[in-house]
Write a structure and sequence with these properties.
The protein is an alpha+beta fold. It contains 15 helices and 27 strands.
């Protein structure tokens, strides 16, 4: 009996020690930490694909150097093979402007989550993101039998007729706008004369010439921007004569992965950097999607870097983005789950904890985010925000007509609820020329602003993006800035799984309703820059070699001065910063430095102090917290593991 009891004690001790070691390993392993960019299990990304940003390892980045890095024997392809993937595409123009290598990896054998976990261990990786899905930011449509200008209530709301008395788009040269969307109906009577055929491209499939619309969303958006006016047919756009560059990214269903949008932005940057670029006043993105990474950390994401590359070009366009249709605050996480559709056609819109992008991106000085105001509706009488519109008095700059979700049939009673524009199909959804359709959404609000930028550029062709944006913000109707009466939406037609909730009277936008009439008829004025504020992620646990970006914010936002910044680190032994992009590289920890960004020839500057680790070293921590950078294994746990292994060995010998 004693022998049996003695053996049981050994086994119990052995099991206890083994359990403790396994537990400590689980606590200590850096690969078990929750990733900062978690892959949603709900199908909002392309499975097996990731967008990867590598630190610059090719020296001077050019199209040639990126191509070499992505070649069969190149650096990017080799990095892909180490995780069982292939380098599908690189984005040379965006990479050159970002000072980082942006590429798309795909694996046939590993999940997105597995790829992300393995790539995050690569010290050369700056960031890695799922290839998330973006959606057209529209809601409903109703098809009329004919079209009349008198039904374009949105044009009157923004003062278009007053602007047209001065200019309808007349300019000695061509003013262009780019539309990143689902394509366009290229033979439509109200569009064909304004399409810049030579620059149009398709990124929704391998055939770059297949940019004709199969969804209808892009055609509707393009019509509001630049349908031919005063031609006796259909409708008129805000600018009757602007040239439209179609960059198709959305498929027939109205959705697309991030990589399509990044490819379109890469093409646009390449075009703007060409020897004789067209004068592109604005780019319209009436699309968006969710991401659970907060704005201050999303700065280093591939999509954010693509936008930043475009934004910092000397001839950058105004970037016009739809605020989104979730009834949520831009820049804040969604408080509910929201879907649209019925049965097998249910479509993702937003999940609890996700932020709306690109509307929530920080540090883009030439971007305008647009919320929606309604016509007459039982929920939103004239003068109220559209009940679906996202809102923010910080992230949303302007409001514009976007309609109100109503019946799918056009009747005499409800036709004024939504926005009338050009259609690619007839009432039965069959491809047809010279059709028109009603739709609603912030997708419909954004092109009013894009068209306004193009119209203003035709009146004042020497204004750059900062000054064009400034004119629209300064002349906006500040008195027409309705308070939101919602934080979420529900509609039987949308199949939403939540109910309408009362919001605590937040403003729809920062500046109010677009007024293009006032913008065109009021002479431009110089507005001085007063301050620059820098935002940084949590860097307390950064290690040597870690890289991240800082985000600048300018006040007042409508300032007309040059926004180009010159960056400097007060302690270059601790961290360096790229002179033009604000990319910080940690060189020594622990340590402390102050990063300064100066504008207006150094007259205005902002600064942020960065502390990496503890400048006065203390005993190593026993765990790992979240934030911008990763921590090494705590030494204390390693010591405990050694002691436990020795005890285990002694136990086995007894």
């Amino acid at each position: 009996m004693k022998t049996v009891k003695r053996t049981t004690d050994r086994e119990l001790l052995f099991a206890a020690l083994l359990f403790l070691i396994v537990s400590l390993l689980g606590l200590a392993s850096p690969t078990e930490a929750e990733p900062k960019t978690a892959v949603s299990p709900r199908g909002n990304c392309v499975e097996g694909e990731v967008l990867v940003v590598f630190k610059n390892k090719v020296g001077e980045i050019s199209a040639k150097s990126v191509a070499a890095a992505a070649s069969e024997g190149g650096y990017l392809h080799a990095a892909a093979r180490t995780v069982g993937a292939s380098a599908i595409r690189s984005y040379s123009s965006l990479s050159a402007e970002s000072d980082a290598l942006i590429t798309l990896f795909r694996s046939e054998t590993k999940t997105t989550e597995q790829l992300m976990e393995e790539l995050k261990r690569n010290p050369d990786v700056l960031s890695v993101s799922p290839n998330r899905i973006m959606y057209a930011a529209s809601l409903s449509e109703a098809r009329p039998n004919d079209a009349r200008y008198g039904e374009l209530w949105g044009m009157e709301m923004i003062g278009a007729s007053a602007a047209w008395a001065v200019t309808s788009g007349d300019f000695t040269g061509d003013i262009y706008v780019a539309v990143i969307d689902s394509g366009i109906a290229k033979d439509h009577e109200d569009l064909k004369d304004n399409i810049a055929f030579e620059y149009c491209r398709n990124f929704a499939s391998e055939d770059e010439t297949a940019w004709e619309d199969e969804n209808g969303h892009g055609t509707h958006v393009a019509g509001t921007i630049g349908a031919v006016g005063n031609n006796g047919a259909g409708v008129a756009g805000v600018n009757w004569k602007t040239k439209i560059i179609v960059l198709r990214t959305l498929d027939k269903s109205g959705s697309a992965p991030w990589s399509n949008t990044i490819a379109a932005l890469d093409c646009l940057v390449d075009l703007l950097k060409s020897p004789n670029p067209p004068k592109i006043a604005a780019v319209n993105l009436s699309l968006g999607g969710g991401n659970d990474v907060p704005p201050e950390e999303a700065v280093s994401s591939p999509l954010s870097l693509a936008f930043r590359a475009l934004d910092k070009l000397p001839n950058a366009p105004v970037i016009v983005v739809a605020a989104g249709n979730n009834g949520m605050e831009v820049g804040a996480p969604a408080t509910v789950d929201l879907t649209a559709g019925k049965g097998d056609e249910i479509q993702y819109i937003a999940h609890r904890g996700e932020y709306e992008y690109p509307a929530s991106f920080l540090g883009l000085s030439n971007m305008i985010v647009v919320g929606s105001v309604a016509s007459t509706d039982v929920f939103a009488p004239r003068g109220r925000a559209s009940y679906f519109s996202n809102w923010s008095s910080k992230y949303v700059q302007l409001a514009a007509p976007g309609g109100t979700y109503g019946s799918s049939r056009t009747t005499e009673e409800n036709k004024y609820q939504n926005i009338l524009s050009v259609s690619h199909a007839d009432a039965d959804g069959k491809k047809a020329d010279n059709e028109y359709v009603y739709m609603a959404g912030t997708s419909m609000a954004a092109p009013h602003v894009t068209g306004a930028v193009a119209l203003l550029a035709s009146r004042y062709p020497d204004l750059n993006a900062a000054r064009l944006k400034s004119r629209l913000l300064v002349t906006a109707n500040h008195d027409y800035n309705p308070e939101t009466d919602h934080v979420a939406i529900a509609s039987p037609d949308m199949g939403a799984n939540i109910e309408r909730q009362k919001a605590p009277d937040y403003k729809l936008s920062k500046y109010g309703l677009l007024d293009i009439g006032k913008a065109v008829t009021t002479p431009p004025a110089e507005i001085p820059l007063q301050s620059v504020t820098l935002t940084a992620p949590d860097v307390s646990e950064c290690e040597e070699g870690d890289v991240f970006f800082l985000s600048p914010a300018f006040e007042p936002e409508e300032a007309t001065e040059d926004r180009a910044l010159t960056w400097k680190s007060s302690n270059s032994d601790v961290a360096s910063v790229t002179r033009n992009t604000g990319m910080v590289t940690v060189l020594k920890t622990p340590g402390r430095t102050t990063i300064t960004a100066a504008a207006s020839d150094g007259k205005i500057s902002g600064a942020v102090e960065l502390t990496f680790g503890d400048p006065e070293p203390e005993p190593a921590p026993t765990g790992k917290s979240g934030g911008g950078c990763s921590a090494a294994w705590p030494g204390a746990i390693g010591f405990i593991l050694i002691v436990m292994v020795l005890l285990l060995f002694t136990c086995r010998q007894a």
